Amino acid sequence: MSNKRNSNFWKWTSIVLAIALIAVSCFCFFNNKSLNTVASSFKGMTPEEIIAYVKNYTDQDEPHYTNMKTKDAYYQPMVQVVDYLNRNGFTVYVVSGTDRFLTRAYVDGALNIPMRQVIGSDDILKATNEDKDGFEYQLKPDDKVILDGEFQIKNVKMNKAKLIEREIGQKPVLAFGNTSGDYIWRRCEVS
Questions:
Q1: What are the DSSP E strand ranges found in the chain?
Q2: Which residue among 96, 117, 151, 154 has the highest number of C-beta atoms inside a 10 angstrom radius?
Q3: Distances 124 to 39, 129, 150, 162, 187 between C-alpha atoms, Å
Q4: Cβ 126 vs Cβ 45: under 8 Å
Q5: Cβ neighbourhood burial of 11 (10 Å; 0-12, 13-18, 19+)
Q6: pLDDT tens for the chain, residues 1 to 191
Q7: Beta sheet of 174-175, edge-to-edge order
Q8: Are 143 and 129 contacting, i.e. CB atoms less than 8 angstroms apart?
């Protein structure tokens, strides 16, 4: 590839909102039973309460390291790649098999990635007073959006490709992963 073509390629990817995906290995749960356990543990909590809970947890000392908090226990080359991509006009998404709210809380403040760019496994949400299907229920002024106690979708393997398409709407330019299930990303990249 000539330098001119290579230069145009990178210019093009910046213009079309290039996307890189980084897998975060935090609070990983790999089966439906585990996900239901996590979802039921947070049943009745608002997303904001879950985020506060996780932030409190990650502010604890990391047990196997001196002078390190859990929130600082990131694989530094990954942090460097995220920083580099952000500085160079890429839009970086975190796509994880872990619960979306847990991942958002873990990423917030540690990586320069807004919460709206975090995709994870999803819990069923409902209103505090919701007693029927969401198509029929009208949100009341005193309602809060809370977790129902069950998960909706496990964001692994093919489900990652589906959620990338649904939420981002274009193929990533770069994709990184840390499990065999992340191979699907390589199939989804712009070639």
A1: 19-22, 91-99, 118-127, 145-153, 174-175
A2: 96
A3: 9, 15, 6, 18, 29
A4: no
A5: exposed
A6: 344 444 433 333 332 233 344 433 334 444 566 666 777 888 999 999 998 998 888 888 888 888 888 888 888 888 888 899 899 888 888 888 888 898 898 888 888 899 999 888 888 899 999 987 778 899 999 999 999 888 787 777 777 878 888 888 877 777 777 666 666 555 555 55
A7: 145-153, 118-127, 91-99, 19-22, 174-175
A8: yes
* Burial (CB count within 10 angstroms: exposed 0-12, middle 13-18, buried 19+), residue 91: middle
**Pair of tokens at residue 132:** 């029927």
pTM equals 0.74
Taken as a whole, the chain contains a residue count of 191
Q: Which residue has the tokens 């994709």?
A: 175
CB within 8 Å of 108: residues ≥ 6 apart? 51, 55, 115
Quick one: DSSP state of residue 27? S
Q: In whole angstroms, how large is the CA radius of gyration of the chain?
A: 18
Are 65 and 73 spatial neighbours (Cβ–Cβ below 8 Å)?
Answer: yes
Alpha-carbon distance of 119 to 21, in angstroms, equals 10
Is beta strand 174-175 parallel, antiparallel or unpaired with respect to 19-22? Answer: parallel
H helices of 24-99, where? Answer: 32-41, 47-58, 76-87
Give the Cβ contact number of residue 161 at 10 Å.
Answer: 15
